[in-house]
Specification:
The structure is a single chain. This protein is of the alpha/beta class. It is built from 5 helices and 9 strands; from the N terminus they run βαββαβαβαββαββ. The protein has helices spanning 14-22, 57-70, 93-121, 141-161, 198-210, and strands at residues 4-9, 28-34, 47-51, 73-78, 124-128, 167-173, 186-188, 219-222, 229-231. The strands form 2 sheets. It has a 7-stranded parallel β-sheet, with helices on both faces. Strands 7-9 form a two-stranded antiparallel sheet. Bound molecules: NADP nicotinamide-adenine-dinucleotide phosphate (NAP). Residues 10, 12-16, 33-36, 53-55, 79-83, 102, 128, 130, 173, 175-176, 178-180 line the site of NADP nicotinamide-adenine-dinucleotide phosphate.
């Protein structure tokens, strides 16, 4: 099998870590970007952790230009994301900027940097969006807006690149059991069927990558069977 290379953002925890564990099973060598990787991450030739703050977009672009000289990427997964919730007038402008950069600008920038390679490789771009992209998100107006824009970008991109054999898809997960809500006053309900696991999202990525090449799946929505969240006690905020 030809070596295949994937660039994955947000590979250091949650959904991204689950995807990083799954991709080598499909023959990918993964360049995974994050800021702090767990100490016990298994060292493997098929996983290259890259410590980088995505908000430093100049540094990011320079690093990706270096990497693509060594690796013909055939897969880009824009997974890194950050969410801050609450009344919009109470949201710190720096957090609005951070969400816009990490959730939207970085996926568009990485796509721009890798698209020529992806066309050569007839590769794929997967954007980890959110169900919030498809619905109104009071107390998450800015986060929801970044995800709606990411999904719109993904849909337009598919129409732009499909004739080159490149596929683009957005996955829209609902509440997933990760550290994502550490800054929120709510979290996943502990019942197993009230939230998704990171592995459920990794399975959707696997589904996209193993679909027949002539059948482009462009949009997947994943929801837990039950719809329930839990308020955190005030002293846990
Ligand atoms: N959990 C959910 O319920 C849920 C639902 C729908 C969609 N999503 C989406 O799923 C994606 C993954 O989130 P998750 O649930 O797995 O949350 P998570 O465990 O908090 O993971 C977020 C990842 O993004 C990385 N990241 C964030 N800001 C970064 C920055 N400035 N520079 C470098 N890396 C950065 C984090 O790296 P470090 O920790 O190393 O900084 C981490 O690897 C996000 O796009 C999120 O919007 C999550």
């Amino acid at each position: 099998m030809e070596p295949r290379y994937a660039l994955l953002t947000g590979a250091s925890s949650g959904i991204g870590l689950a995807i990083a564990h799954m991709l080598p099973q499909l023959g990918y060598t993964v360049c995974g970007i994050g800021r702090s990787f767990p100490q016990d991450i298994p060292s493997s030739p098929s996983f290259l952790p890259i410590c980088l703050d995505l908000t430093r977009t100049g540094e990011l672009a320079a690093r990706v230009r270096e990497l693509r000289r060594e690796m013909p990427f055939s897969l880009l997964i824009n997974n890194a994301g950050v969410g801050y919730f609450g009344l919009h007038e109470e949201l710190n402008p720096a957090k609005i900027h951070e969400m816009t950069t990490v959730n939207l600008e970085v996926p568009m920038l990485l796509t721009h940097l890798l698209l020529r390679d992806l066309k050569k490789e007839k590769g794929m771009i997967i954007n980890i969006s959110s169900v919030t992209a498809k619905q109104s998100s009071p107390h998450g107006c800015a986060y929801g807006a970044t995800k709606a824009a990411l999904s719109a970008f993904s849909a337009s991109l598919f129409d732009e690149v499909r004739k080159y054999g490149v596929r683009a898809a957005a996955i829209h997960p609902d509440m997933t059991r990760t550290r994502f809500y550490r800054n929120a006053d709510f979290t996943a309900d502990p019942a197993q069927d009230a939230s998704l696991s990171p592995q459920d999202v990794a399975s959707a990525v696997r589904f996209l990558l193993t679909a027949p090449p002539d059948c482009a799946v462009t949009d997947i929505t994943l929801r837990p069977q039950k719809h329930r969240i839990q308020r955190k006690p005030q002293n846990n905020l």
